[in-house]
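Example (one chain per record):
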Amino acid sequence: MAKVCSVREMRIVEENAKWLGVSEELMMENAGAAVARAVEELAAPPARVAVLAGVGGKAGDGLVAARHLALKGYRVDVLFVESARRIAHPAARMNYSIVSRMLSIRVRERYGRWINSLSEYDVLVDAMLGTGFRPPLSEPYLTVIVRANSIDAVRVAIDVPSGVEPDTGSVEPTAFKADVTVTMHCPKPGLYREPGRSYAGRVVVADIGVPPEAEKLVGPGDVKYRLPPPDPRGHKGVNGRVLVVGGSREYHGAPWLTAIAALEAGADLVYLAAPKTVLRDAYSPEIIPMEIPGERLQPAIVERLAKTASGVDVVVIGPGMGREPETLEAFTRLLRVLEEMRARLVLDADALYALSASPRPIQTEAVLTPHLGEASRLLGSRIPDTLEDRVKAAREAAARYNAVVLLKGWVDVVASPHGKYRLNVTGTPQMTVGGTGDVLAGVLAALWCRVRDPYIAACLAAYVTGAAGRLAEEKYARVTALRVAGEVPRVLRGEA
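Predicted structure:
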């Protein structure tokens, strides 16, 4: 069976393809041309073809197919189930404008005017209900589909037969019974699951011009379709609670940047556990302070930190933490306790140094965020700075530490313990400025609160932080970590 992609995954890929410069109009043109080729294999001109059209994007594919078939000598009618004025999809409207001016194609609207003439056609093309359909099938499409299925004609469905739920294959009460289904880019799961499979006929996968980078690179489609919308009935804390553990006598700003970034990325409540000097110098009324006695993280505070961690969604450890022996001992103890609690962890900066001193698989969900030098230390060998070697290193570290690894750099590599990986190319050379890694850790923690999957959260965080850096570069003469954090909400709103 060919690789399948869900409706959401397909929407992500299409959005990312547009980001890469492949227009919606071009993808629709390629889709419609593929449908026309499928019809040509089943019937020769001057066969009579009826394109049964809805009012969504799938109708646009059908309109393109109608144009191509008319040019090849087929006698083509486009039969809209509803009024064509209801077409809202921009690319579909454009193609309707073209077809409605073609003298070789007859366009008819409202099914009551043409349904009794369906028996006149040799081929019926289903361009009615697309991947947004959810059962049950309702009028007027139910009547049209029942009639179409009763006709002795070749039936071709576009993407998924109308009436089939594209992800599950469920059908209620019926669906367009296709001889061939031309599905776009990759098959939808419902085409291989009963009862949908019985309605799909032979499945043909059409190349619509989506470059492989639309799947391999993290893009705006991931942000648009992976992040759940805010709950209108939500309460304080529903969008995430984050605990940041870090800071020391030498480093005051790092944990504060992480905490601020978590807030900017949508976390409702952010706790900062740090020495008193850090909390004083990096005070913010939006951050809930938790004082660590002394000048750095110590073993005596582990129990109290664990208690606070039990009330949050994600714990970030490492920014500005320091590398004193007592700090490394405290980290080791804290990690064991948090593993027993099954806490979700983001390990950054000095936490990665501590982990590399005693390398072992992590026994809870975790994301490691090393740069190339830290990754080399985690693996115990120097990593050449080529894309191939970076991918290899990220995947090796993910497997060795049983954690998602976000390897930062000129191309970010996000790898899962199971071998999956994706790349991120957003960002700017100015993001070499200190503190941007701390911002990334905070963004990651906040997004992880919302998407629940650490691999997806890491992919999103890499893209969002890099895109925020580009916005900061456009807005200011100089990029700083705080300016990057400030642009994160714009990226999440789709403004990047």
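Caption: The mean pLDDT is 97.
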